[in-house]
Every structure is written in structure tokens, then in C-alpha cells.
Design goal:
This protein has about 425 residues and is an alpha+beta fold. The protein has eleven helices and ten strands. The chain has helices spanning about 5-55, 70-90, 120-130, 175-265, 270-295, 300-305, 305-310, 315-320, 335-355, 385-390, 395-410; strands at about 95, 105, 130-135, 150-160, 165-175, 320-325, 360-370, 370-380, 410-415, 425-430. Strands 2-1-5-4-3 form a five-stranded antiparallel beta sheet. A five-stranded mixed beta sheet has the order 6-7-8-10-9, with helices on one face. Strand 1 and strand 2 form a beta hairpin. The radius of gyration is 47 Å and the shape is rod-shaped. The protein starts with a helix and ends in a 7-residue tail after the last strand.
Length: about 425
């Protein structure tokens, strides 16, 4: 993979990771801001209830039988206390409830004296003297005069008359403060998340770049070692081929000529025996030369891929197959890809000779994008692919070797065949393959 793609991938992965963290943090910060706002409203309401409202309460506020003057004075004291609460906390509505659900006082006069059902939370607050807060239900009839102000946060706290009777104080705050707090916390969290990602990328990029340079250097070194190994292998094969050619092949060829000459100078059954022996020796020389071609194939990195592929089909020609080789004059590919191509062709043609009962085999090589596409096609009897490929488990060496070549090069192996239709083996191998064998 090109190093630029790796760098871009690392940066994108880091950015996506940062975005995911920031998104999760946004949700967390929203919930956290709401929780903080509820806690703040609860604490503020409890504080003003104890320090401002409760000291201003008089029993006449809840006593309908009290003299009118006492009730007015109690209402005036509560009115002043409530206004100071609104000024100190930014509240938009204050209500004071009796335990039976009657509104004893509110800065909205139309509510005073009306009775509404208290919720379970309200009753619990009266009984336990606890504070709490929640988003106000503006659809409730007792909240109809708060509509149009946007969402509100409703906090409530039990207070007590001088006589000890409990009342419920409700204070309504704008929810915009909650949203503003959430936005501030969200922005801070996002800045922290992306800042952390930026620092991480800044620290990571030099390390990634260094690793990529090491990988590229290692790949070049492996390619150099592969070339050296190929050169050494080629030299050894040439030595073996030369030894065969100068020794056994020459001796057997000379013996075949001698026997042929002797057969022509002899009559009767002896001549037939000599002629058959000479023919057998000539076939042996042909087989040895075919083996020499396999032992010493043309080196694809030096003599061109076409010559190497042509040598790889020598076994087919020796077996009487018509062979057609279609390879470009120049194939830009790494030595590993070229060597894989030659070995694939040699093994596929060998399979054709052993099993296909074919008259013709065609070999083609094409450079497509970043791959070499190597195709070996015969006109033989074909076979049931499922049966033969399953035989791999029982030691079917031919298909196993073809598969191994594909696996070693990181390529793909395709097979098209059926009984009576011939067979096509196709190898798709990356041109940059540097695999060694």
C-alpha cells in the first residue's frame, strides 16, 4: 500500500475517532448539564425557601378565618419575599401551595384561591420536607399562565408556617440557562476531544512515517535478495542442464544413432530389436531434453517472460500437444510475479498432459491494472470441479500446487470446467509480488 494512502488512512481514522468521541461527549455533556441545572435549581430553591420565604410566612396566609387585615399583611410580606426571590434567582414564577392543592399565593394573581390536584412528587415533598426539580409540564392547567415562555425548570421545596403546618413552595426557572450550560460544556468537551486527537496525530505521524519508510526499505531489500536467489537458482539449473546435455544426453543420443545404423546393417528379427531400441532411446533423449527445459527455464527477469512461458510449455509439446503462447513482449512486473507466472503455467500444462486428454493448450498473459492475468486453456475432457477439488484433501497434488502458488503470491485462482467442455485455469497475481519460494 502506498505510504500516502496509509497516512491519509491514519488521519481519517483519527478524525473519525475524534468525531465519535466528541459526539458521545456531547450527549454526556447535555445530560450532565441538565443534572447540574436540576441540582443548582434545587439548591437555590431550598436556600431561598429557608432564608427568605419561610421567615416571611404568617399563619394568616393559609387561615381563611383570619381577619382581612392580617391576611393582607401576610400577603404583602410574602409578596416582598417572593419578589426578592425572583430578583436573586431569575425565577419567572413563584407559587405557594397548601397541602389540599389550593394556591395560597402566586405572583400571578389569577391563580390565587384556585385548587388543583397535587402530584405524587409534590405530596412526597410535603411529607418528607425534601427539595427536587424537574422540567415543568406546561400542559397542566395550573401552568397555563406560564405557557409561551419556552421550557421551564420547576423546583419545589416544603416550607412551614409559624404554626408548623407544611406548605409547598414552587419556583419556575427559564430552561434557557440549562441549554446554555449544556452548549458551553459541549463546546468545551468537543474542543478537548479534537485537541487531543490533533495532538495524537501530531505525535503519531512521525512514527507512522518512520515505520512506512522501514517497510519500504525492507521490501526493496527483499526484492534484491529475491533477484540474487533467482540468479543463484538459475546458475545451478544451468549447471545441471549442462551436465545432462554434455554427459547422459550426448551418450544416449550417440547410442541411439549407433543402434539405428546397426539396425540398417542387420536383417531379420535382430534388426527389428535394434530399431525398436534406437526408437526408445530417441524418445528418452526427447524426454530428457524436456526435463532439462523444466530444470533450466528461461529466466523471466533477464530473457523476458515470453521465452520463459514458452519453455514452461515444453512438456506439452513433448507430449504431442499443440501449444499456443500469447505473451506481450514486455511485461512490467516484479521478479516474484514473473516467476509465479512461469511456475503456474508449467504446473497447469503438466496437469493438462496428465489428465486432460487434450489436443491443444493455449497460454495467455495480460497486464490488467495492477495485476497479471495468466490463463491456461485446453480442449480436453474437462472434469467435475467439486470432485477434483475435494480430492485435494486426499493428496491431489496438481490442484494443490496451483492453489499454493496463488496463496503465496496473494493472488486469486479461478477454475472454469465441466465434463466434456475443456478446462481453463486462471491466476490473477499482483505485479508487485515479491514472494519467495
Amino acid at each position: 500500500m502506498p505510504w500516502r494512502r496509509v497516512l491519509v488512512g491514519v488521519v481519517l481514522a483519527a478524525l473519525l475517532g475524534g468525531a465519535a468521541v466528541a459526539t458521545a461527549g456531547t450527549l454526556v455533556s447535555q445530560r450532565t448539564a441538565e443534572r447540574f441545572a436540576v441540582e443548582d435549581a434545587t439548591d437555590d430553591t431550598a436556600a431561598v425557601a429557608r432564608s427568605v420565604v419561610e421567615p416571611a410566612l404568617r399563619d394568616a396566609v393559609a387561615d381563611r378565618a383570619a381577619p382581612a387585615a392580617d391576611r393582607r399583611e401576610a400577603a404583602d410580606r410574602l409578596d416582598r419575599a417572593a419578589h426578592s426571590v425572583a430578583a436573586a434567582t431569575g425565577a419567572v414564577r413563584v407559587k405557594l401551595w397548601a397541602a389540599d392543592g389550593r394556591v395560597l399565593w402566586s405572583d400571578e394573581p389569577r391563580l390565587v384561591g384556585q385548587r388543583f390536584a397535587l402530584s405524587a412528587d409534590d405530596l412526597e415533598a410535603l411529607e418528607t420536607d425534601r427539595s427536587d426539580a424537574e422540567v415543568s409540564d406546561l400542559s397542566a392547567p395550573e401552568n397555563r399562565y406560564e405557557r409561551g415562555r419556552g421550557p421551564l425548570l420547576e423546583a419545589y421545596q416544603a416550607v412551614h408556617l409559624p404554626s408548623g403546618a407544611p406548605l409547598l413552595l414552587e419556583v419556575y426557572y427559564p430552561y434557557d440557562a440549562v441549554l446554555a450550560s449544556a452548549a458551553s460544556l459541549r463546546s468545551a468537551f468537543a474542543a478537548l476531544a479534537f485537541g487531543t486527537v490533533a495532538v495524537g496525530i501530531a505525535l503519531l505521524l512521525p512514527v507512522v512515517l518512520w515505520l512506512l519508510l522501514r517497510v519500504r526499505s525492507g521490501q526493496r531489500e527483499r526484492e534484491r535478495l529475491l533477484v540474487r536467489a533467482l540468479d543463484a537458482e538459475t546458475a545451478e539449473r544451468r549447471r545441471l542442464a549442462a551436465d545432462l546435455h554434455d554427459g547422459a544426453v550426448q551418450d544416449i543420443a550417440g547410442l541411439a544413432l549407433t543402434l539405428g545404423a546397426a539396425a540398417r546393417g542387420t536383417s531379420g528379427s535382430a534388426a527389428a530389436v535394434l530399431d525398436d531400441s534406437a526408437t526408445t532411446l530417441r524418445f528418452a533423449v526427447s524426454a530428457l531434453r524436456s526435463t532439462m527445459s523444466a530444470v533450466q527455464p528461461a529466466a523471466p527477469d533477464r530473457e523476458g517472460l515470453a521465452a520463459a512461458v514458452d519453455d514452461a510449455t515444453a512438456r506439452g509439446r513433448a507430449a504431442g500437444l499443440e501449444t499456443v503462447v500469447d505473451v506481450p513482449a514486455s511485461v512490467p512486473a516484479a521478479p516474484g510475479a514473473l516467476l509465479a507466472t512461469v511456475r503456474f503455467v508449467r504446473e497447469a500444462v503438466a496437469n493438462t498432459v496428465r489428465h486432460a486428454q487434450a489436443a491443444r493448450v493455449t497460454v495467455s498473459v495480460r497486464h490488467v491494472d495492477d495485476d497479471l492475468v495468466v490463463r491456461v486453456t485446453d480442449d480436453g475432457v474437462g472434469f467435475d470441479a467439486a470432485v477434483v477439488l475435494a480430492a485435494r484433501r486426499r493428496g491431489h497434488l496438481g490442484t494443490t500446487l496451483l492453489r499454493q502458488i496463488a496463496e503465496d503470491t496473494g493472488g486469486d485462482l479461478l477454475l472454469r470446467t465441466a465434463p466434456g467442455t475443456g478446462t481453463t485455469w486462471e491466476l490473477v497475481v499482483p505485479v508487485g509480488t515479491a514472494t519467495t519460494w
